[in-house]
């Protein structure tokens, strides 16, 4: 009888594992939704005309090589290597100056990181290991470890997920996106800009995967119309460039837009949580937007100019039928329903409270936090009635199944390890070991560290990279006697900026899954965007962050020692 209960549980855990991979790593190539091919474009331009179709749900591409829930050789190696590294570190690794508790945290980190990387067991289950290992090794008390899984930043993300689910359930996100595209214009370059602005804005509030999946079919429908209108004309050869600029523009905008808010991308949430665990400081939602939003605007503008003015420049200035497609898509949505209006009001209210909390509400409402605001918005969404006969509430408990609970466990595991780093002195010990780099210029160190994370995240999970690297960067900054934000902020942002490879981010995988771009095109196009992102992130951190947040990056505040 026990097996009848265990098998569904095991299946659910692996389903959650795959969900996290889709949202954070996209390690297997996925088939993006999009139009179906109907006929080759005349003129030999290399573009296939495709009829616009409704979005299909994401699913593994045929031949993607996803090993599923079974044990592959890599998983078997990881399954053994994780506990082995844990045991060897505890028994044989006795460096001078590191306490036994610090050694236990290091051993736990090696075990958890190994299973995260090799996916030996489902990621959510691996993320629960600190609850077992840290107390049993005497590194941290059980209460302190479990408390990390209830960190305020986790509830901020829970509320963000709930808002995103409500927007998608009632199609509010699609209405917002199409309105932005229609408002910006319908010349070829403006169409690309419209898609990028709409996708970037959505990605600040919903997952970059959802934003890309929604916009790609609409973008390819516009390309299909362009192919029909320009067939056999003098500009037919420019269609492949226009098509690629839309595909790249949507994918890149989804990645860039996530940098604008703390709920836009997991590394920023991990940054905020890690700062709270290590130093007792908080990065407010509004405070981050003041810094992150200008970087999003500048990087988005450069990406648009780079794609439409340099790499995929087209000669035609007007796209026949483009305006009609956008209008048709908006008409198909019908009038704004009462449910959409309700979700919009809750969304705007939550966004207003997040943005203004630090300078307006902290004094009036003691105890208010970004997580509290997110939970209030979630409760309201589950409370508001609906006029729909089949859906009596804006959100029902059945909708909560779409919340990626495994990601919240991943955050909790990372924050528990971060707490262990500071409580046991492991972070201070790591900082001491890094003092050998004291003679190197601090700006050069920031550039090197940011570049390392940026190119590392091309092949690893951005969340796992941020979880493992941020406590080390904090210790490194303290050893250099500079503000921890000088290294932690650019590294957290860089962990999200992978533009070169399909496995780098979900939007990259979706772009590649359309079949419109090749890996070499992604590498060539994305490399220079990586370089610009690196320069912009470092410059923003060095020159804009001190002004926006009123801090001195080149000195270590007493509260961070």
Tell me about this structure.
With 561 residues, this protein is mostly helical. Helices cover 66% and strands 2% of the residues. The chain is built from 23 helices and four strands. The chain has helices at residues 2-25, 73-92, 100-118, 123-126, 129-136, 142-148, 152-169, 172-184, 188-203, 208-229, 239-257, 266-279, 285-311, 322-333, 338-361, 370-383, 405-423, 426-433, 442-456, 462-479, 485-494, 506-513, 519-549; strands at 30-31, 36-40, 48-51, 59-60. The strands form two sheets. The chain has a two-stranded antiparallel ribbon with strand order 1-4. Strands 2-3 form a two-stranded antiparallel ribbon. The protein is globular. The N and C termini lie far apart (56 Å).
Descriptive labels:
561 residues, two-stranded antiparallel sheet, globular, mainly alpha
Number of strands: 4
Instruction: Estimate percent helicity.
Output: 55-70%
Q: Cα distance, first to last residue?
A: 56 Å
Largest sheet, in brief, is: 2 strands, antiparallel
Major sheet: arrangement of strands: 1-4
Query: Whole-number average pLDDT?
Result: 78
Uncertain stretches of 5 or more adjacent residues: 1-7, 24-66
Look at the helices and sheets and give the structural class: mainly alpha
Number of helices: 23
Beta content comes to under 5%
Radius of gyration: 24 Å
SSE order in H/E notation? HEEEEHHHHHHHHHHHHHHHHHHHHHH
- Looking at how many chains there are and whether they match, the oligomeric state comes to single chain
| Overall form | globular
Region (Disordered): 29-67
Membrane topology: Multi-pass membrane protein
Organism: Streptomonospora nanhaiensis
Biased composition (Low complexity): 48-59
């Amino acid at each position: 009888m026990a097996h009848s209960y265990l098998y569904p549980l095991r299946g659910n855990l692996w389903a959650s594992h795959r969900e996290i991979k889709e949202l954070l790593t996209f390690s297997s190539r996925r088939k993006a939704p999009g139009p179906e091919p109907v006929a080759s474009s005349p003129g030999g331009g290399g573009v296939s005309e495709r009829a616009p179709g409704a979005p299909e749900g994401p699913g593994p591409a045929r031949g993607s090589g996803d090993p599923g829930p079974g044990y592959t050789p890599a998983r078997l190696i990881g399954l053994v290597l994780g506990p082995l590294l844990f045991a060897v570190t505890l028994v044989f690794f006795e460096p001078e100056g590191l306490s036994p508790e610090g050694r236990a945290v290091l051993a736990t980190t090696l075990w958890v990181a190994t299973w995260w990387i090799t996916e030996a067991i489902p990621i959510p289950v691996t993320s629960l290991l600190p609850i077992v290992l840290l107390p049993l090794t005497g590194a941290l008390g059980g209460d302190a470890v479990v408390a990390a899984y209830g960190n305020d930043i986790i509830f901020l993300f829970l509320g963000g997920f709930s808002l995103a689910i409500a927007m998608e359930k009632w199609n509010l996100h699609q209405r917002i996106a199409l309105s932005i595209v229609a408002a910006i214009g319908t010349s070829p370059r403006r169409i690309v800009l419209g898609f990028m602005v709409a996708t970037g804005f959505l990605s600040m509030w919903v997952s970059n995967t959802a934003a890309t999946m929604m916009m790609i079919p609409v973008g390819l429908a516009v390309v299909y119309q362009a192919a029909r209108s320009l067939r056999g004309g003098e500009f037919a050869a420019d269609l492949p460039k226009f098509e690629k600029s839309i595909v790249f523009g949507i994918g890149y905008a989804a990645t860039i837009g996530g940098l604008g808010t703390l709920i836009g991308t997991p590394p920023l949430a991990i940054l905020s949580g890690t700062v709270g665990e290590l130093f007792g400081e908080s990065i407010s939602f509004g405070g981050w937007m003041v810094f992150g939003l200008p970087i999003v605007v500048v990087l988005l503008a450069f990406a648009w100019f780079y794609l439409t003015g340099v790499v995929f420049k087209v000669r035609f200035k007007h796209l026949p039928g483009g305006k009609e497609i956008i209008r048709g898509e908006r008409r198909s949505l019908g009038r704004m329903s009462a449910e959409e209006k309700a979700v919009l009001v809750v969304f705007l209210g939550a966004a207003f409270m997040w943005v203004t909390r630090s300078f307006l509400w902290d004094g009036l409402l003691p105890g208010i936090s970004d997580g509290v605001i997110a939970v209030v918005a979630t409760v309201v969404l589950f409370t508001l009635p609906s006029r729909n006969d089949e859906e009596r509430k804006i959100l029902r408990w059945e909708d909560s199944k779409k919340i990626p609970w495994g990601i919240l466990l991943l955050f909790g595991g990372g924050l528990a390890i971060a707490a262990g780093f500071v409580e046991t002195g492991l972070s201070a010990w790591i900082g001491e070991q890094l003092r050998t780099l004291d003679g190197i210029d601090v700006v050069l160190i920031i550039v090197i560290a940011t570049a390392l994370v940026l190119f590392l995240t091309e092949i690893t999970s951005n969340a796992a990279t941020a979880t493992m690297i941020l406590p080390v960067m904090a210790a490194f900054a303290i050893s250099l006697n500079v503000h921890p934000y000088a290294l932690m902020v650019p590294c957290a942002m860089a962990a999200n900026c992978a533009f070169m490879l399909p496995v780098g981010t979900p939007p990259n995988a979706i772009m590649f899954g359309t079949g419109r771009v090749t890996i070499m095109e992604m590498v060539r196009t994305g490399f220079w965007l990586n370089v610009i992102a690196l320069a912009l992130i470092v410059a923003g951190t060095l020159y804009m962050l001190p002004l926006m947040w009123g801090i001195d990056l080149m000195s270590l505040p007493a509260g961070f020692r």
